[in-house]
Amino acid sequence: MNLPVRTPSSDQTMELYATGFNAWNQLTFDPSPADEEPDDLFTFTKVSAANAISGDGKVLAAQDSDCSPSNHATVQYPSLAAWKANKSTDSWPCKAAVRQITAYDAGFIILLEDETVLSCGDPRFRDCLGREVDESCPANEPGVIQDLSDLGEPIKKIAAAGYTAAALTESGGLYLWGMATPGSQSRHNAFQDISELPNYFEVDGDKDVQDIGFGESHAIALTTDGCIYMIGSNTNGQIGLGENAQDPVSSWTKIDFTPPEGWAIVAVEAGPRSSFIVTKKNQL
């Protein structure tokens, strides 16, 4: 399966800003002297400018996009090496092409081109599935999250990490589901009132959300008025509030981030302990 790559035209240059865990210089891309340990980034810092954006299929991948409309499927591989060798273990047909796949600690969330959202994962953590589980629709096979289908509006993006998942509607509504981190793990839970079925969550007094990203214990949101909001842990600087802000943030908090003149924020994303802001140069 080839990686999907989009190359924007020369007048659509984008820049990437990041904050958070940087133990291996994964955010700065600059070599440090061998005797120096790189520092975490505690505020959003420009780390890259690129003219190509790529996305990978992870371990649960969509079938090649050139397949016939009647043959859409998601394909599961036991490891990254198996994915590279094209040795799959399971394949499930889908009624529409796959738009997006995202992974959390115990499974996957899948968004189809017809805005249907599916989930599959470890049956021990069924609260992360956002749907009922029974013999006809087991946890380990992709099943429709019916509550999202019943909203009456299209889903444009999904996000997931840790034991939390989210769906974002075209109109800017944010719906979350999941569970607290199980067992003895000390990971902070960014959302305290989360449940096993999708529920609407407000951002700063019911603002419309344009984009969302989830980490292990934090989240980042871009609202339609161009503001950035963060919630959750800042242990590694992942919510960009500075090195002295070590206590978790329990509600959406607006951060002071303004792109350079002539640039606009177009997207956000999150890694396990990092956050990213994508800016785009305005067209003249």
TrEMBL record:
This is E3 ubiquitin- ligase HERC6. GO terms for molecular function: ligase activity. InterPro entries: Ran_GTPase-activating, RCC1/BLIP-II, Reg_chr_condens. It comes from the Eukaryota. Keywords: Ligase. RCC repeats lie at residues 172-225, 226-281.
